[in-house]
């Protein structure tokens, strides 16, 4: 079916609006995460895991800046939005932290919670990158790709810490 020019423009605007909504969602999600990571780092039993959380806190602060730059590059401002998914993921993480306090499985639990967060972010950035690509938002795409790469490498790092220390510790 052939679409009229007007129809195509309005489709693009709708995708652009959706893109901005998702951008606002992940922006708020990252901000929530910067508040939770210090607590998770403090609770971690091994220096490896503490360091992984501290490194990711610095990365997350940088990711927030990149999201602001992406919006700027599009001449848009980031909408205010509450990411309910991140709120839920972090609430569950807090529960694990409280329930596993003093347990040898605490680090394994913290990693499980953190990897759920990373996977949520990977899903969002993957979608945002694709949409940015489709709409030709090159500068935003470049910034979002950097965030996506950091989330993926954090996820891999957490798997390594789990394999090397946390899961072993949890079974002791
Ligand atoms: Fe992130």
Walk me through the structure.
- Helices cover 84% and strands 0% of the residues.
- It is an all-alpha fold and 172 residues long.
- The chain has a single domain (5-170), classed as Ferritin, core subunit, four-helix bundle (Ferritin), CATH 1.20.1260.10.
- Helix 1 (5-43) runs parallel beside helix 3 and helix 4 runs antiparallel to helix 5 (138-170).
- The chain is elongated, with a radius of gyration of 18 Å.
- The termini are far apart.
- Bound molecules: fe (ii) ion.
- Fe (ii) ion is lined by residues 30, 60, 63, 121, 151.
Short description:
The protein has helices at residues 5-43, 47-73, 84-99, 106-134, 138-170. The chain has 172 residues and is mainly alpha-helical.
Any chance you could write out the topology, listing elements then pairs?
Elements: H1 5-43, H2 47-73, H3 84-99, H4 106-134, H5 138-170
Helix pairs in contact: 1-2, 1-3, 1-4, 2-5, 3-4, 4-5
The structure holds fe (ii) ion.
């Amino acid at each position: 079916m052939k679409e009229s020019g007007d129809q195509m423009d309005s489709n693009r605007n709708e995708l652009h609006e959706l893109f901005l909504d998702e951008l606002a969602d992940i922006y708020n999600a990252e901000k929530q995460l910067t508040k939770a990571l210090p607590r998770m780092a403090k609770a971690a039993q091994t220096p490896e895991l503490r360091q992984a959380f501290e490194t990711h806190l610095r990365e997350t602060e940088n990711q927030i800046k990149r999201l602001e730059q992406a919006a700027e590059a599009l001449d848009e401002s980031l909408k205010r939005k509450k990411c309910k998914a991140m709120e839920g993921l972090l609430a569950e993480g807090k529960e694990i932290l409280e329930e596993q306090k003093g347990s040898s499985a605490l680090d394994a639990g913290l990693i499980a919670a953190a990897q759920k967060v990373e996977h949520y972010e990977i899903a969002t950035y993957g979608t945002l990158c694709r949409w940015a690509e489709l709409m030709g938002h090159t500068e935003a795409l470049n910034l979002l790709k950097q965030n996506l790469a950091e989330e993926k490498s954090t996820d891999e790092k957490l798997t390594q810490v789990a394999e090397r220390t946390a899961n072993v510790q949890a079974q002791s």
